[in-house]
Fold Probable cell wall amidase lytH.
Amino acid sequence: MKTVNTWLEKHNLKNLPTLIVMVAFVIFIFMIIAFLNHNDEESSSIYVTEDTDLRTGPNAVYPAIKSVDQGQNFNKIGKSGKWIEVESSNHKDKGWVAGWHTNLDIQADADPNANPLKDKTIVLDPGHGGSDQGASSNTKKHSTEKVYTLKTAKELKTLLEKEGATVNMTRSSDTYVSLDDRNIKGDAYISIHNDSLKSSKANGTTVYWFKDNQKVLAETLNAYIQKKALLTNKGARQENFQVLRQTDVPAVLLELGYISNPTDENMITNQLHRHIVEQAVVDGLSAYFSE
Ligand SMILES: [Zn+2]
């Protein structure tokens, strides 16, 4: 304390007003520096180092707004994970680009070719079966839900196993399995159904989730199904279904079209269209597990 006093006296700073002005000045300088740094961080100019896409959100799941060429300049206006929100200087284009496609020092995930589904266990639950036929069509085909949920699950199983996933099915044949017995553990749980309504007009796919830890999987799968499938997309919705309620793992219930709608029925019973939907589910799961 003595040395401080001596120093203050020596520099003629013993009176309080001078001290306050000095301290205020130092704080002011720090604020200026902080402001300049902040500005630099938020609105810095960046450029794209290779041709890529501008997307509506910070993930490859989101739709592309437009493609951008290598060398194009943008103002950086935000950041989420490894994705950068950018705006063109004329304010015409705004969206998200992958950080590793910009001049910023952001590395893509270790091995982009690594298979995110390798060593994952996916549970597939083909709805209904045996004495419970599920929904059915009113057309000459008389298609029943239990047949197409099982076909879809078996085809999906083959595709998932090609990606290195382990697949467990709640049923593999035309047998009745209670809802309680369908509660099998895995890294993800996918229950497969077809919708129906009295009115043959209702159509489209819906992805249901119930618990909070199921929402991201539902939205991711829905985005991929929307992108690929020809059916109307009714979105990801929350619903209290027992198979979703009784499990703790990320789980969804897919309603892959209305079997009561003749157009949807044609797609459900068409192997080529089922394959498109199944591949969309595989791609969605890959995206989900690569996060
Ligand atoms: Zn069903």
